[in-house]
Write a structure and sequence with these properties.
Elements lengths: L4 H11 L4 E5 L2 E4 H17 L17 H11 L1
Antiparallel strand pairs: 1-2
């Protein structure tokens, strides 16, 4: 298994699923919630037919959805 940020997220989720991973004002996500949301993004990417190695662009401001999408892309 290669070591990348998606793997680190998985490992951190196993160790500390209820620990807060994202905080922006009133918006808070635990590692388990972040990992679950990223998995949904990854599944959507795969369902859209995008294959590993293809390029995906992200155009989002500094919002909590950015790391969700970013990790989802890495997982796909």
């Amino acid at each position: 298994m290669s070591l990348n940020l998606a793997v680190i997220l998985e490992e951190t989720t196993k160790k500390s699923p209820d620990k807060l991973a994202l905080i922006l004002d009133q918006f808070k996500l635990t590692y388990a919630q972040l990992n679950g949301a990223a998995n949904q993004v990854a599944n959507g990417i795969r369902a859209a037919g995008i294959k590993p190695g293809e390029r995906i662009g992200i155009m989002l401001p500094n919002v909590p959805q950015f790391p969700i999408v970013y990790f989802g892309i890495l997982k796909a």
